[in-house]
């Protein structure tokens, strides 16, 4: 019998912001992955990169300005770097966690490119926040460099275009490794957005929403479950209000109704619930949205928000 297949998406709280924070946060996040593996699942991991790609872009390009022998790095190269370095931390933390449990599995990160449509209007309207929170002065300096910023809680953050994913270029390699029982880290940060130009794939100055690539991977790989680990234990109705109510097990029709009511934050919870609905509509058995902390209980059905057929 084929093992259960699970695509698990790690949000920014599973990664932290700085290098030491990431190493620490990933150590906790991989326990949820190890629980799934110990339970016999074949797993593909995908993850956020907004904070990391912003940090890498600033580090690469500011340094290059001051040192003529270095060149700056375009956003697509920074996305590739973020996949490499986040994958490196996840590989090592997960390997150690599994070995502690007496389990040995091959774990590999696939640098993943995803085509985007050059006519996607999102390419011309930056919406996706990247990097750390900036002061007003730092935000003004970014604008002078031609970058875009938006006001957020506590300050400002850079924003960048977020086109829709089209084709996952390395999909066959991901599937091959998964079929062979390897744990695969893929589509990190939504995948590196690329534009197809003849034989060439040209990096786009954008970042793809990772919830969209999580559902795409889950659909293409015919996963049984999609698990989205984020910063809250449940999806809530009336979030942030006095009458806020956590959602337990709901059907895809109910979830779509809540979407129509505007129950979910546009750039935060909405893409996760949409990803979950799309996955179930295309044949997935269960989508779970919860925190790293609650993951084990959510896998067992006693915590988190589960979206199922119906
Ligand atoms: N209806 C809702 N229920 C729960 N959380 C919500 C809701 N609407 C918006 N949110 C916000 O969504 C956030 C999770 O999304 P996000 O910050 O993008 O995390 P991630 O990095 O995991 O993708 C929560 O911290 C919460 O502030
Ligand atoms: N690429 C992406 O969606 O990253 P965040 O989750 O950090 O926004």
From TrEMBL:
Q: In which pathway does it act?
A: Metabolic intermediate metabolism; carbamoyl phosphate degradation; CO(2) and NH(3) from carbamoyl phosphate: step 1/1
Tell me which SUPFAM superfamilies the record gives: Carbamate kinase-like (SSF53633)
Source organism superkingdom: Bacteria
Q: Which Gene3D superfamilies match?
A: Acetylglutamate kinase-like
Q: Which UniProt keywords apply?
A: Kinase, Transferase
Keyword Kinase recorded? yes
Q: Would you tell me the Gene Ontology cellular component terms? A: cytosol
One GO biological process term: L-arginine deiminase pathway
Q: Which GO terms describe its molecular function?
A: carbamate kinase activity
Q: Which CDD domains match?
A: AAK_CK
In this chain the Aspartate/glutamate/uridylate kinase domain maps to: 4-291
Q: Which reaction does it catalyse?
A: hydrogencarbonate + NH4(+) + ATP = carbamoyl phosphate + ADP + H2O + H(+)
InterPro entries found in the cross-reference section: AceGlu_kinase-like_sf, Asp/Glu/Uridylate_kinase, Carb_kinase
Family assignment from sequence similarity: Belongs to the carbamate kinase family.
Know the name of this protein? Carbamate kinase
């Amino acid at each position: 019998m084929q093992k259960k297949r699970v695509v698990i998406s790690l949000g920014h709280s599973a990664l932290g912001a700085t290098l030491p924070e990431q190493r620490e946060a990933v150590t906790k996040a991989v326990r949820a992955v190890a629980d799934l593996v110990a339970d016999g699942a074949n797993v593909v991991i995908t993850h956020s990169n907004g904070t990391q790609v912003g940090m890498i872009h600033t580090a690469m390009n500011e340094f290059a300005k001051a040192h003529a022998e270095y060149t700056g790095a375009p956003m697509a190269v920074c996305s590739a770097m973020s996949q490499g370095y986040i994958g490196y931390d996840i590989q090592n933390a997960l390997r150690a966690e599994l070995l502690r449990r007496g389990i040995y599995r091959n774990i590999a990160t696939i640098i993943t490119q995803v085509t985007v449509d050059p006519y996607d209007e999102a390419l011309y309207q930056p919406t996706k926040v990247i990097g750390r929170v900036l002061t007003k002065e730092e935000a003004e300096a970014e604008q002078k460099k031609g970058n875009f910023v938006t006001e957020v809680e506590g300050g400002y953050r850079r924003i960048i275009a977020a086109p829709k994913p089209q084709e996952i270029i390395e999909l066959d390699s991901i599937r091959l490794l998964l079929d062979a029982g390897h744990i695969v880290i893929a589509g990190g940060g939504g995948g590196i957005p690329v534009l197809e130009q003849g034989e060439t794939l040209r990096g786009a100055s954008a970042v793809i929403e990772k919830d969209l690539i999580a559902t795409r991977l889950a659909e293409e790989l015919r996963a049984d479950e999609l698990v989205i680990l984020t910063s809250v234990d449940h999806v809530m109705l009336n979030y942030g209000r006095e009458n806020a109510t956590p959602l337990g097990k709901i059907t895809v029709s109910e979830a779509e109704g809540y979407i129509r009511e505007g129950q979910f934050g546009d750039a935060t919870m909405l893409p996760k619930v949409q990803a979950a609905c799309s996955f179930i509509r295309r044949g997935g058995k269960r989508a779970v949205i919860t925190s790293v902390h609650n993951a084990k209980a959510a896998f067992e059905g006693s915590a988190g928000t589960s979206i199922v057929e119906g």
